[in-house]
Amino acid sequence: MQRLLGVLGGMGPLATVDFFRKVVEETQATVDQEHIPLIIDSVPQIPCRVAAVLREGESPVPQMLSGIMRLKKAGAECIAIACNTAHYWYDDLCEQGGMPILHIVDAVATELERTARADAPLGLLATEATLEARIYQSRLAQREIDFIINTPEERAELILPAIALVKQGKPQQGGELLDHALGLLQERGAGQYVLACTELPVAVDAVSSLHRAHCIDATRALAKASVRWSLQT
Amino acid sequence: MQRLLGVLGGMGPLATVDFFRKVVEETQATVDQEHIPLIIDSVPQIPCRVAAVLREGESPVPQMLSGIMRLKKAGAECIAIACNTAHYWYDDLCEQGGMPILHIVDAVATELERTARADAPLGLLATEATLEARIYQSRLAQREIDFIINTPEERAELILPAIALVKQGKPQQGGELLDHALGLLQERGAGQYVLACTELPVAVDAVSSLHRAHCIDATRALAKASVRWSLQT
């Protein structure tokens, strides 16, 4: 018997669509009934997470808790959050929501345990807000995983424009910039990469990047963890 | 202020992903917060709708009502059902669910009103179960819209295999069969087509069919109706 997972989405809506699709793709199923049961809250009227992390805007926590409460009322037993930056408030959401929440970085770490390369550091590709929130750094350090990141200039000139281009419906142009950012981390020794923003996998999929095979997609990692949780495996 | 729409999905899960994506695409929005709020129930443990319509399996109504109840508890004010065949039980679901439900054929009819061609009948492409359920025939007849359908042989040799190929991840091969089925309806006078099964738009999008511009996608029509309802326009 599969367990009912609640998905806190809407940050943004297309990233939630992408997460939902990856949950379906990552389920071994030949008929509808073998897919895992989900209830998805995609209520995008949540204050901007980036502004809040950078202390330039109001907290999104009350609206995120409202979403968790809607999912709880509907019968969800556990939550997945389809947004990297939102994990900045993970402890508050667990405590005030009263529900277990799968952590996106734990899901990434599970993928790293399967494919880990001890000989080379990990390249971590993320937005300023996700880095500022330190959700990856602290959990990777706990696992003694070495990582390197792009310089502030590279983030400003390659990663942020790549994300913006995906949001504008130009993933191929975004993918070219991202491929360049991946190449710079490779030159500095990275052997594997984590795409720690929901737009980045969309960009890299749109181009024939030689780095694609060495990238861990955080969205897909969370989708896999969600399927495992539902099936209790 | 946007109103919260509940989506009864899971029939099947990928069709629900497709519907969700089309809702996002059909919303005029420049930031996350302008997208409409949705809560999606994708619990695929629902008995097969096709078998039930053909009186060869148990009723899916109790499970569909459970989904509507979950959405109601979560605060949804209206329901959209991301499955054509499920509308066979529309009256029961409205009555027993105690919630307004957007009807997929009404959504298609709204699109037809905008693009109607009085000079040629409509070609209706659907499964045996959707035709047997008569959800399209009765509502099109009420609006005095003439329509033609494929022969049983064409459905068996072209439409059903096209749907199966999409479910197997081969939309291009499915699209070639569907293009042939569209061409046969054109030879018999059809000037416009309704793709009344959630797999058919995926197939036609995968090939460069000359008929594409004359096809109404029932999934997208319901997505547009959902956005209009939420924005009360």
Notes on the structure:
Two copies of one chain form a homodimer. With 233 residues, chain A is of the alpha/beta class. Chain A is 51% helix and 12% strand. Chain A contains eleven helices and eight strands. Chain A has helices spanning 13-25, 49-53, 61-73, 90-97, 104-115, 128-133, 135-142, 152-167, 171-187, 200-205, 218-231; strands at residues 5-8, 38-42, 78-81, 101-102, 122-125, 147-149, 192-195, 215-217. In chain A, strand 3 (78-81), helix 4 and strand 4 (101-102) form a beta-alpha-beta unit. In chain A, helix 1 (13-25) packs across helix 11, helix 5 crosses helix 11 (218-231) and helix 8 packs antiparallel against helix 9. The first copy, chain A, is globular.
In short:
The structure is a homodimer of 233-residue chains. Chain A is α/β, with parallel strands linked by helices and 233 residues long.
Pick out the low-confidence regions of chain A.
none
Largest sheet strand order of chain A = 2-1-3-4
Quaternary organisation = homodimer
Largest interface: A-B, 32 and 32 residues
| Distance from first to last alpha carbon of chain A | 12 Å
- Mean pLDDT level of chain A: 93
Proportion of residues in helical segments of chain A: 40-55%
